[in-house]
Design brief:
Elements: E1 3-7, E2 10-14, E3 39-43, H1 52-66, E4 76-78, H2 82-93, H3 106-139, H4 147-157, H5 162-184, H6 193-231, H7 234-240, H8 245-283, H9 288-298, H10 301-327, H11 333-365
Parallel strand pairs: 2-3, 3-4
Antiparallel strand pairs: 1-2
Length: 367
């Protein structure tokens, strides 16, 4: 145990040869003076090597000696190395557990989250309004948009994504056909696998899976690029020069992805049907001609209209969410990663939610 002795306005602290017991960190010596201490003299054994336990003990002791009064004078520490004295000053400036703010309750946290979501929804609606308002300027050639920027967005959103879109939709069509073949083969209705794959792919899976792929690829790229520009203060420079970021950065990306998504949707539908065809021919006793004829009879034009409209809406959503997450990002490198993650997560959730809304509306209209 450490030994404390008061000498006038000084408190002499003697550290035993065995050192300070870590258990004393939570309970410093109880025989401490009520006040009037201006100096703490520390006497340690010869060749003593100071450690973190000693520093923590001294910091707690100094806090108890100083008391809870905010205007109490600082206590000078003597007999410790210069580096340890600086460390003690830093430890003494840290807030005590009593000074730490309590964690807000569940109701307050829910309220803050709701307000934050409300403000973010208003900002997103404002961005959508700006994009719609500036569309005529783009189509009349008066928008502040670089042609090379538009071509880069088109290449990133279409040709560079063809391979991954093909793989995903080809496998999804094959999976649908495999599951349907296993179940329908027992009833002798294997031909109706073509109906299952055709309607599910054209109406639901092709637009949804293509949009999710682009959300993880193109939407994340939009967010990362704009967030990096935000960190480099390039967006502030554009605003200073009188170039609206919504027109220069957001508008070409939204228009390009909205126009390219229907084309990718048609491409995805073809790959899904091919995947189903391969599995159906290999597992069922049907020909390619019979499969294609049944597919053509099953798929109505309304299914293509719904799927095409979905792809158009999903493309605009992915671009808008990616750009919005990039524009609201902070200026650090970590904020770029957070913006990218938020763009992917928010886009996927929005795609599923809007797809469910389409399903409800289509059912209500009897389509």
């Amino acid at each position: 145990m450490v030994d404390t002795r008061q000498d006038g306005d000084s408190l002499i602290l003697t550290i035993p040869a065995g050192g300070i017991d870590p258990a004393q960190l939570a309970a410093p010596p109880q025989t401490l003076p009520a006040g009037g201490i201006s100096t703490l003299q520390v006497k340690a054994p010869a060749g003593w090597k100071w450690g973190t336990v000693d520093a923590a003990f001294l910091a707690g002791l100094l806090r108890r000696l100083r008391g809870e009064e905010p205007d109490a004078p600082d206590i000078q520490v003597q007999g410790v190395p210069h580096d340890l004295a600086k460390l003690l000053e830093l430890a003494r400036s840290a807030p005590t557990p009593a000074e730490a703010k309590p964690r807000p309750g569940l109701r307050k946290r829910l309220g803050k989250a709701s307000l934050a979501q409300w403000y973010e929804s208003k900002a997103m609606m404002a961005l959508i309004g700006e994009v719609v308002r500036r569309l005529p300027r783009l189509f009349t050639g008066r928008a502040m948009v670089r042609r090379n920027e538009v071509m880069d967005v088109i290449a990133e959103s279409s040709t560079n994504a063809l391979i991954i879109v093909a793989i995903v939709n080809l496998l999804m069509g094959a999976i649908l056909a495999f599951v349907g073949a296993v179940q329908l083969k027992a009833f002798g209705a294997g031909l109706y696998v073509a109906d299952l794959v055709g309607i599910a792919s054209v109406r639901e899976l092709a637009p949804v899976m293509t949009a999710i792929v682009l959300a993880g690829r193109t939407g994340a790229s939009f967010a990362a690029r704009i967030a990096t520009m935000q960190g480099n203060e390039e967006i502030d420079a554009l605003t200073t020069l009188g170039v609206p970021p919504e027109e220069f950065l957001v508008l070409p990306r939204v228009v390009a992805l909205s126009l390219l998504m229907p084309l990718l949707y048609v491409y995805a539908c073809a790959l899904s049907l091919i995947g189903g065809l391969v599995v159906a021919i290999s597992m069922l006793d049907i020909t390619a001609t019979a499969y294609m004829v049944e597919t053509q009879a099953a798929i109505k034009s309304a299914n293509f209209y719904i799927g095409g409209l979905k792809s158009l809406v999903f493309g605009a959503m992915v671009a808008l969410i990616g750009c919005r997450c990039g524009l609201r990002a902070g200026r650090s490198a970590a904020d770029v990663g957070q913006a990218t993650t938020a763009a992917v997560v928010n886009a996927i959730v929005a795609i599923i939610a809007v797809d469910a809304l389409f399903a409800v509306c289509a059912n209500a209209l009897g389509i």
